[in-house]
Amino acid sequence: MASGGAEEDDGGIPLDIDNMHMLLQVEHDQIQKRTFTNWINAQLSKRCPPSHVSDLFSDLKNGSQLLDLLEVMTGQPMKRQRGRGVFQQRANIETALNFLKKKSIKMVNINIPDIMDGRPSIILGLIWTIILHCHIEELASTLSYSSCHSSLDSLTSLDSFSGSPVPASPVHAGRTSPLHKHFRISAKKALIMWVRDQCQRAGCSLSVKDFKKSWRSGEAFLAILCSLRPQLVDLSLVRFRRNQENLEEAFHLAERELHIPRLLEPQDVDVKDPDEKSIMTYVAQFLQYSNDMPSPDDHLQVPQSERALELTSWLQQAYQELSEARTATKHSSFAEKYQVRQRTSSQRIEKKQQL
Questions:
Q1: What is the CATH code of the structural domain delimited by 141-292?
Q2: Domain assignments of the chain as residue spans, ordered by start
Q3: If DSSP codes are grouped into helix, strand and coil, which group holds residue 344?
């Protein structure tokens, strides 16, 4: 830092606080543009037929890709105006914004003319609103109280990362209620608690406190990978590599082995002040992968029709055995009848547990 409290750029020109803030905002906007574009294209690739966004700020002007995105995210068809005229573009954007408003999503300072003009801050704000409410919050709603129980003792430690208090006692609800609703915490906090849970399962001692500097070393990404697919990652090597080497391995493995789209590059994260929204967007994909993973014993699951046949067959067999035992012990002593009853009872209990 210079004596005047300003920092110099590479050219030796002193930068005041306002200029530093502006440069940081430009850097974040560039990272967000790349991340959000990659995220949108990952969603639009699921569409039939798929569509594509080349330039985030110009391609959303006609409203068509915006409606495509909402169709993929919600599974609901969107009525649209065909044609490339200003009227059609305005109508499509209005349809998209009205749809979001009907879902009780606040659209702060996001209006049709700014989207049609391709204003970067407005476009980025709109896409982040869609990501947060239609993707991250939807995923957070799948996190139950019981699924993150190992992280609940660290609820209060999230205060420093958000600045908002956590209630001392949970809302009256079942243990399997959504985590972020059960404890009145945001989807952001619920997601970070899920991350902590994954780190703990992977045996990683890293304390993830935010979606910024906690991710710079790449260890948190690798810990999640190790939790989801233990054979992929050797966490003992993390501390002997540079940040960008760890980040590159994490992003490469996630794309190759888990088919998680590569939204970020190592140089996007290994910076003094990583972009929170971009990292949250990427991390949410790991939660989505976790939700889509089959249960460890799914291959053992028997179809309900087969279970019903098995149960019916056993009931018929048990009835037959009981009838035969009753006939055979009709003239037996009480002690003999009791022994037969105990034997058949234990068999029923064992079979009941299996079914």
A1: 1.10.418.10
A2: 16-138, 141-292
A3: helix
DSSP string, 111-151: -HHHHHTT-HHHHHHHHHHHHIIIIIHHHHTT-BTGGGGGG
pLDDT for 16 equals: 64
Question: Rounded distance, CA 176 to CA 320, Å?
Answer: 42
Q: Are the beta carbons of 222 and 249 closer than 8 angstroms? A: yes
Burial label for 29, CB within 10 Å (0-12, 13-18, 19+), is: middle
Write the single-letter amino acid at 5: G
What is the torsional sign of CA 313, 317, 323, 326? negative
Give percent of the chain with pLDDT exceeding 90: 54
Nearest one of 112, 131, 122, 175 to 43, comparing CA atoms: 131
Read off φ and ψ for residue 144, nearest 5 degrees: -90, 160
What pLDDT does residue 2 have? 43
Give the Cα separation of 260 and 253 in Å (integer). Answer: 9
| Fold of the CATH domain 16-138 | Actin-binding Protein, T-fimbrin; domain 1 (1.10.418)
Distance between start and end Cα atoms, the chain: 70
Return the SS3 of 213.
helix
Query: What are the tokens at 252?
Result: 């490469």
Alpha-carbon gap, residue 7 to 15, rounded angstroms: 5
Could you tell me the two tokens for 59? Answer: 């391609």
pLDDT tens sequence across 50-70: 999 999 999 999 899 999 999
Q: How far apart are CA 275 and CA 36, in angstroms?
A: 12
pLDDT (tens digit per residue) in 65-124: 999 999 999 999 999 888 888 999 999 999 999 999 999 898 888 999 999 999 999 999
- Rounded-to-integer distance, Cα 230 and Cα 60, Å: 40
Quick one: pLDDT at residue 4? 45
* One fold for 16-138 and 141-292: yes
The arithmetic mean of pLDDT across residues 323-349, rounded, is 72
